Amino acid sequence: MRVLRTCLYAASLVCGAAAVSSAQSVRVGAPTLRIGRDEQPGAFITAVAGAVRLPNKQIVVGNRGGEHALLVFDEKGKFVRALARKGKGPGEVGYLLWVLRCGNDLFTGDIDGERVQVFTGDLKYTRAFRFASQTYRLACNDRAQFVHMGWESPRDMRDGVYRAPTAFWISPADSTPGVSLGMLPGSERFGIVNDGKPVGSGPRAIGREPALAIGATAAYVALGDSLSVRAFDFTGKPLRALSAPHTPVAATAADVDAAIERSVTELGESTRQRTTTEFLRMPMPRTLPATRDLLVDATGLVWVQAFPSARKTTVTWTLFRPAGGVAARIELPAALKVYEVGRDYLLGGITDDDTGIIEVRLYPVTR
Fold first, then answer.
1. 354: alpha, beta or left, given left = phi > 0 and alpha = psi -120 to 50?
2. What is the rounded distance in angstroms from the CA atom of residue 200 to the CA atom of residue 111?
3. Global pTM?
4. What integer pLDDT is reported at residue 24 of this predicted model?
Protein backbone atom coordinates (compact mmCIF):
# COMPACT_ATOMS: atom_id res chain seq x y z
CA MET A 1 0.00 0.00 0.00
CA ARG A 2 1.03 3.60 0.25
CA VAL A 3 3.56 5.73 1.99
CA LEU A 4 3.55 9.31 3.19
CA ARG A 5 5.34 12.39 1.84
CA THR A 6 6.73 13.78 -1.42
CA CYS A 7 5.09 14.80 -4.72
CA LEU A 8 5.67 15.85 -8.34
CA TYR A 9 5.70 18.60 -10.90
CA ALA A 10 4.64 18.00 -14.56
CA ALA A 11 3.96 15.70 -17.54
CA SER A 12 1.03 13.67 -18.71
CA LEU A 13 2.17 10.84 -21.02
CA VAL A 14 1.91 7.24 -19.81
CA CYS A 15 3.84 4.50 -21.57
CA GLY A 16 2.87 0.84 -21.55
CA ALA A 17 4.89 -1.67 -19.54
CA ALA A 18 7.49 -3.84 -21.12
CA ALA A 19 7.40 -7.26 -19.50
CA VAL A 20 10.81 -8.81 -18.92
CA SER A 21 9.51 -12.13 -17.63
CA SER A 22 7.01 -14.52 -19.19
CA ALA A 23 5.53 -15.05 -15.71
CA GLN A 24 4.11 -11.54 -15.41
CA SER A 25 3.00 -8.74 -17.73
CA VAL A 26 1.78 -5.41 -16.41
CA ARG A 27 0.65 -2.51 -18.58
CA VAL A 28 -0.59 0.94 -17.64
CA GLY A 29 -2.82 2.77 -20.10
CA ALA A 30 -3.72 6.42 -20.62
CA PRO A 31 -5.65 8.08 -17.75
CA THR A 32 -9.39 7.43 -17.75
CA LEU A 33 -10.19 9.91 -14.96
CA ARG A 34 -8.74 13.32 -14.13
CA ILE A 35 -9.69 15.07 -10.88
CA GLY A 36 -8.77 18.68 -10.15
CA ARG A 37 -10.66 20.77 -12.69
CA ASP A 38 -14.00 20.77 -10.88
CA GLU A 39 -14.92 24.39 -10.19
CA GLN A 40 -17.57 23.64 -7.57
CA PRO A 41 -17.06 25.41 -4.23
CA GLY A 42 -14.84 23.33 -1.98
CA ALA A 43 -13.47 21.13 -4.78
CA PHE A 44 -10.22 23.05 -5.30
CA ILE A 45 -7.05 21.02 -4.59
CA THR A 46 -4.43 23.16 -2.86
CA ALA A 47 -1.65 20.55 -2.58
CA VAL A 48 -1.98 16.77 -2.64
CA ALA A 49 -1.04 14.88 0.54
CA GLY A 50 -2.18 11.56 -0.94
CA ALA A 51 -5.18 9.94 -2.61
CA VAL A 52 -7.04 6.68 -2.08
CA ARG A 53 -9.75 4.74 -3.89
CA LEU A 54 -12.53 3.38 -1.69
CA PRO A 55 -14.29 0.02 -2.27
CA ASN A 56 -17.30 1.93 -3.70
CA LYS A 57 -14.89 3.46 -6.28
CA GLN A 58 -15.09 6.95 -4.80
CA ILE A 59 -11.73 8.71 -4.67
CA VAL A 60 -10.61 10.64 -1.58
CA VAL A 61 -7.95 13.29 -2.13
CA GLY A 62 -5.86 14.49 0.81
CA ASN A 63 -5.90 18.28 0.40
CA ARG A 64 -2.97 19.78 2.28
CA GLY A 65 -3.57 23.38 3.29
CA GLY A 66 -7.25 23.52 2.38
CA GLU A 67 -10.19 24.31 4.63
CA HIS A 68 -11.07 20.62 4.51
CA ALA A 69 -8.36 17.94 4.51
CA LEU A 70 -10.38 15.33 2.60
CA LEU A 71 -12.14 15.92 -0.72
CA VAL A 72 -14.42 13.16 -2.02
CA PHE A 73 -15.10 12.54 -5.73
CA ASP A 74 -17.31 9.91 -7.35
CA GLU A 75 -16.11 7.32 -9.86
CA LYS A 76 -16.66 9.82 -12.69
CA GLY A 77 -14.59 12.51 -10.99
CA LYS A 78 -17.49 14.67 -9.84
CA PHE A 79 -17.02 16.42 -6.50
CA VAL A 80 -19.25 14.87 -3.82
CA ARG A 81 -18.31 16.50 -0.53
CA ALA A 82 -15.54 17.69 1.75
CA LEU A 83 -14.82 16.54 5.30
CA ALA A 84 -12.17 16.74 8.01
CA ARG A 85 -12.37 20.50 8.29
CA LYS A 86 -9.50 22.49 9.75
CA GLY A 87 -9.41 22.16 13.54
CA LYS A 88 -8.34 20.07 16.53
CA GLY A 89 -11.56 18.24 17.35
CA PRO A 90 -12.56 14.65 16.52
CA GLY A 91 -12.55 14.19 12.76
CA GLU A 92 -10.89 17.58 12.22
CA VAL A 93 -7.34 18.07 10.89
CA GLY A 94 -4.98 20.95 11.64
CA TYR A 95 -2.40 20.29 8.90
CA LEU A 96 -2.59 17.11 6.87
CA LEU A 97 0.66 15.18 6.59
CA TRP A 98 -0.66 12.10 4.82
CA VAL A 99 -3.73 10.02 4.00
CA LEU A 100 -3.64 6.24 3.51
CA ARG A 101 -6.14 3.46 2.92
CA CYS A 102 -5.16 0.53 5.12
CA GLY A 103 -7.61 -2.26 4.36
CA ASN A 104 -11.17 -0.95 4.55
CA ASP A 105 -10.31 2.02 6.76
CA LEU A 106 -8.87 5.41 5.91
CA PHE A 107 -6.11 6.91 8.10
CA THR A 108 -4.96 10.52 8.26
CA GLY A 109 -1.81 11.96 9.83
CA ASP A 110 -1.99 15.42 11.39
CA ILE A 111 1.10 17.48 12.17
CA ASP A 112 -0.70 18.81 15.27
CA GLY A 113 0.47 16.44 17.99
CA GLU A 114 1.21 13.74 15.40
CA ARG A 115 -2.39 12.63 15.77
CA VAL A 116 -3.61 9.75 13.61
CA GLN A 117 -7.34 9.56 12.92
CA VAL A 118 -9.30 6.64 11.54
CA PHE A 119 -12.36 6.78 9.27
CA THR A 120 -14.44 3.86 8.04
CA GLY A 121 -14.86 2.99 4.37
CA ASP A 122 -17.98 5.16 4.30
CA LEU A 123 -15.91 7.99 5.86
CA LYS A 124 -17.31 8.00 9.36
CA TYR A 125 -14.85 9.06 12.06
CA THR A 126 -14.11 6.30 14.57
CA ARG A 127 -11.05 7.04 16.70
CA ALA A 128 -7.72 8.82 17.12
CA PHE A 129 -4.34 7.70 18.48
CA ARG A 130 -0.64 8.49 18.40
CA PHE A 131 2.11 6.08 17.45
CA ALA A 132 4.48 5.20 20.28
CA SER A 133 7.47 6.86 18.58
CA GLN A 134 7.84 9.93 16.42
CA THR A 135 7.56 8.96 12.77
CA TYR A 136 9.26 10.63 9.81
CA ARG A 137 7.86 8.32 7.12
CA LEU A 138 5.49 5.34 7.09
CA ALA A 139 3.42 2.96 4.97
CA CYS A 140 0.62 0.49 5.72
CA ASN A 141 -0.89 -2.72 4.36
CA ASP A 142 -4.42 -4.09 4.10
CA ARG A 143 -4.24 -5.43 7.67
CA ALA A 144 -3.51 -1.95 9.03
CA GLN A 145 0.06 -2.92 9.90
CA PHE A 146 2.54 -0.05 9.57
CA VAL A 147 6.22 0.15 8.76
CA HIS A 148 7.94 3.28 10.11
CA MET A 149 11.10 5.28 9.75
CA GLY A 150 11.98 7.52 12.68
CA TRP A 151 13.82 10.83 12.89
CA GLU A 152 17.57 11.16 13.13
CA SER A 153 18.94 12.15 16.53
CA PRO A 154 19.82 15.86 16.87
CA ARG A 155 23.15 14.66 18.28
CA ASP A 156 24.07 13.38 14.81
CA MET A 157 23.49 16.70 13.05
CA ARG A 158 26.50 18.08 11.16
CA ASP A 159 27.24 21.24 9.21
CA GLY A 160 26.61 20.61 5.50
CA VAL A 161 25.66 17.25 4.00
CA TYR A 162 25.38 14.27 6.33
CA ARG A 163 23.46 11.01 6.71
CA ALA A 164 22.82 9.52 10.13
CA PRO A 165 21.36 6.16 11.21
CA THR A 166 17.75 6.06 12.34
CA ALA A 167 15.29 3.52 13.69
CA PHE A 168 12.91 1.49 11.53
CA TRP A 169 10.08 -0.60 12.96
CA ILE A 170 6.71 -2.29 12.36
CA SER A 171 3.63 -1.57 14.46
CA PRO A 172 -0.13 -2.10 14.54
CA ALA A 173 -2.54 0.83 14.22
CA ASP A 174 -2.24 1.90 17.84
CA SER A 175 0.23 3.25 20.41
CA THR A 176 2.10 0.02 21.14
CA PRO A 177 5.89 0.08 20.51
CA GLY A 178 5.94 -2.54 17.74
CA VAL A 179 8.82 -4.64 16.36
CA SER A 180 12.24 -3.16 15.64
CA LEU A 181 13.89 -3.59 12.23
CA GLY A 182 17.12 -2.07 13.55
CA MET A 183 19.07 1.08 12.71
CA LEU A 184 19.50 1.90 9.03
CA PRO A 185 20.75 4.96 7.12
CA GLY A 186 18.16 7.72 7.23
CA SER A 187 17.64 10.72 4.99
CA GLU A 188 20.56 12.50 3.41
CA ARG A 189 20.29 15.94 4.99
CA PHE A 190 21.86 19.39 4.92
CA GLY A 191 22.63 20.76 8.37
CA ILE A 192 23.35 24.30 9.54
CA VAL A 193 25.63 24.97 12.51
CA ASN A 194 26.35 28.47 13.84
CA ASP A 195 29.07 29.09 16.44
CA GLY A 196 29.28 25.37 17.04
CA LYS A 197 25.57 25.06 17.80
CA PRO A 198 23.14 23.13 15.57
CA VAL A 199 20.51 25.44 14.06
CA GLY A 200 18.53 22.97 11.98
CA SER A 201 18.56 20.63 9.01
CA GLY A 202 16.44 19.66 6.04
CA PRO A 203 16.41 17.00 3.32
CA ARG A 204 19.17 17.45 0.79
CA ALA A 205 17.99 18.45 -2.67
CA ILE A 206 18.10 15.26 -4.81
CA GLY A 207 19.60 13.44 -1.84
CA ARG A 208 19.13 9.80 -0.91
CA GLU A 209 15.89 9.17 0.96
CA PRO A 210 14.64 5.83 2.32
CA ALA A 211 11.34 4.64 0.87
CA LEU A 212 9.01 2.22 2.71
CA ALA A 213 6.34 -0.31 1.79
CA ILE A 214 4.61 -3.22 3.50
CA GLY A 215 2.72 -6.17 2.06
CA ALA A 216 0.87 -9.19 3.41
CA THR A 217 3.99 -11.00 4.66
CA ALA A 218 6.92 -8.56 4.67
CA ALA A 219 8.03 -4.95 5.11
CA TYR A 220 10.38 -3.34 2.61
CA VAL A 221 12.97 -0.55 2.75
CA ALA A 222 14.83 1.00 -0.20
CA LEU A 223 17.73 3.20 0.89
CA GLY A 224 18.48 4.87 -2.44
CA ASP A 225 22.08 3.63 -2.70
CA SER A 226 21.32 0.95 -5.31
CA LEU A 227 18.39 -0.78 -6.97
CA SER A 228 18.01 -3.02 -3.93
CA VAL A 229 15.15 -3.41 -1.46
CA ARG A 230 15.69 -4.79 2.02
CA ALA A 231 12.94 -7.11 3.24
CA PHE A 232 11.91 -8.08 6.79
CA ASP A 233 9.32 -10.49 8.14
CA PHE A 234 6.93 -9.32 10.83
CA THR A 235 9.23 -10.54 13.61
CA GLY A 236 11.92 -8.15 12.33
CA LYS A 237 14.03 -10.90 10.76
CA PRO A 238 15.85 -9.86 7.55
CA LEU A 239 14.78 -11.74 4.43
CA ARG A 240 16.41 -12.05 1.05
CA ALA A 241 16.82 -8.63 -0.56
CA LEU A 242 15.14 -7.80 -3.86
CA SER A 243 17.71 -6.40 -6.27
CA ALA A 244 18.54 -5.68 -9.89
CA PRO A 245 21.45 -4.01 -11.72
CA HIS A 246 21.67 -0.22 -11.55
CA THR A 247 23.69 2.24 -13.62
CA PRO A 248 24.39 5.55 -11.82
CA VAL A 249 23.03 8.69 -13.53
CA ALA A 250 24.87 12.01 -13.34
CA ALA A 251 23.02 14.79 -11.51
CA THR A 252 22.45 18.14 -13.22
CA ALA A 253 21.18 21.59 -12.26
CA ALA A 254 17.92 20.70 -14.03
CA ASP A 255 17.41 17.92 -11.48
CA VAL A 256 17.57 20.48 -8.68
CA ASP A 257 14.98 22.60 -10.51
CA ALA A 258 12.75 19.54 -10.81
CA ALA A 259 13.16 18.84 -7.09
CA ILE A 260 12.06 22.41 -6.33
CA GLU A 261 8.91 21.92 -8.41
CA ARG A 262 8.10 18.64 -6.67
CA SER A 263 8.46 20.28 -3.26
CA VAL A 264 6.30 23.26 -4.25
CA THR A 265 3.56 20.93 -5.50
CA GLU A 266 3.63 19.07 -2.20
CA LEU A 267 3.79 22.09 0.11
CA GLY A 268 2.15 24.85 -1.92
CA GLU A 269 3.18 27.78 -4.11
CA SER A 270 3.79 29.98 -1.07
CA THR A 271 6.89 27.90 -0.26
CA ARG A 272 8.59 28.43 -3.65
CA GLN A 273 10.97 31.25 -2.69
CA ARG A 274 12.12 29.61 0.54
CA THR A 275 12.51 26.20 -1.09
CA THR A 276 14.47 27.64 -4.02
CA THR A 277 16.84 29.49 -1.70
CA GLU A 278 17.42 26.41 0.46
CA PHE A 279 17.91 23.96 -2.40
CA LEU A 280 20.28 26.16 -4.40
CA ARG A 281 22.68 26.66 -1.49
CA MET A 282 23.11 22.91 -1.05
CA PRO A 283 25.98 21.19 -2.89
CA MET A 284 24.69 19.02 -5.71
CA PRO A 285 25.59 15.31 -5.57
CA ARG A 286 27.57 13.85 -8.47
CA THR A 287 24.92 11.23 -9.19
CA LEU A 288 21.19 10.86 -8.61
CA PRO A 289 19.93 8.46 -5.94
CA ALA A 290 19.17 4.98 -7.30
CA THR A 291 15.56 4.93 -6.05
CA ARG A 292 12.84 7.37 -5.06
CA ASP A 293 9.57 5.61 -4.29
CA LEU A 294 8.33 2.19 -3.24
CA LEU A 295 4.97 0.45 -2.85
CA VAL A 296 3.27 -2.95 -2.84
CA ASP A 297 0.37 -3.44 -5.24
CA ALA A 298 -2.86 -5.38 -4.70
CA THR A 299 -1.29 -8.59 -6.07
CA GLY A 300 1.81 -8.40 -3.85
CA LEU A 301 4.29 -7.15 -6.44
CA VAL A 302 6.86 -4.71 -5.04
CA TRP A 303 7.11 -1.58 -7.23
CA VAL A 304 10.41 0.33 -7.06
CA GLN A 305 10.78 3.69 -8.78
CA ALA A 306 14.16 4.76 -10.09
CA PHE A 307 15.00 8.36 -9.25
CA PRO A 308 13.64 10.53 -12.09
CA SER A 309 16.17 12.34 -14.27
CA ALA A 310 15.21 15.79 -15.53
CA ARG A 311 16.60 14.77 -18.93
CA LYS A 312 13.77 12.25 -19.40
CA THR A 313 9.99 12.67 -19.33
CA THR A 314 9.50 9.11 -18.06
CA VAL A 315 11.00 7.03 -15.28
CA THR A 316 11.42 3.28 -14.90
CA TRP A 317 9.55 1.30 -12.27
CA THR A 318 10.95 -2.17 -11.55
CA LEU A 319 8.36 -4.68 -10.31
CA PHE A 320 9.76 -7.43 -8.06
CA ARG A 321 8.11 -10.65 -6.99
CA PRO A 322 8.09 -10.94 -3.17
CA ALA A 323 10.11 -14.17 -3.39
CA GLY A 324 12.71 -12.48 -5.60
CA GLY A 325 13.25 -11.78 -9.26
CA VAL A 326 12.05 -9.05 -11.58
CA ALA A 327 8.48 -9.56 -12.81
CA ALA A 328 8.29 -6.54 -15.12
CA ARG A 329 9.56 -3.06 -15.85
CA ILE A 330 7.33 -0.20 -16.90
CA GLU A 331 7.77 3.45 -17.85
CA LEU A 332 5.57 6.09 -16.20
CA PRO A 333 5.69 9.90 -16.34
CA ALA A 334 8.65 11.15 -14.33
CA ALA A 335 6.44 13.69 -12.54
CA LEU A 336 3.72 11.23 -11.54
CA LYS A 337 3.41 10.50 -7.82
CA VAL A 338 1.86 7.02 -7.48
CA TYR A 339 -0.43 6.59 -4.45
CA GLU A 340 -2.05 3.18 -5.02
CA VAL A 341 -1.89 0.30 -7.48
CA GLY A 342 -4.89 -2.04 -7.46
CA ARG A 343 -5.46 -5.12 -9.56
CA ASP A 344 -6.82 -3.06 -12.43
CA TYR A 345 -5.99 0.58 -11.67
CA LEU A 346 -3.22 2.98 -10.71
CA LEU A 347 -3.98 6.17 -8.80
CA GLY A 348 -1.51 9.02 -8.93
CA GLY A 349 -1.05 12.77 -8.74
CA ILE A 350 0.52 15.15 -11.22
CA THR A 351 0.57 18.80 -12.20
CA ASP A 352 -0.78 19.31 -15.72
CA ASP A 353 1.97 20.64 -17.96
CA ASP A 354 -0.33 22.92 -19.95
CA THR A 355 -2.62 24.34 -17.27
CA GLY A 356 -0.50 24.12 -14.13
CA ILE A 357 -3.49 22.53 -12.35
CA ILE A 358 -2.78 19.88 -9.73
CA GLU A 359 -4.63 16.72 -10.74
CA VAL A 360 -5.26 13.25 -9.36
CA ARG A 361 -5.56 10.73 -12.19
CA LEU A 362 -6.77 7.16 -12.49
CA TYR A 363 -5.02 4.88 -15.00
CA PRO A 364 -6.15 1.40 -16.13
CA VAL A 365 -3.80 -1.49 -15.32
CA THR A 366 -3.88 -4.75 -17.26
CA ARG A 367 -2.04 -7.89 -16.23
1. alpha
2. 18
3. 0.90
4. 59
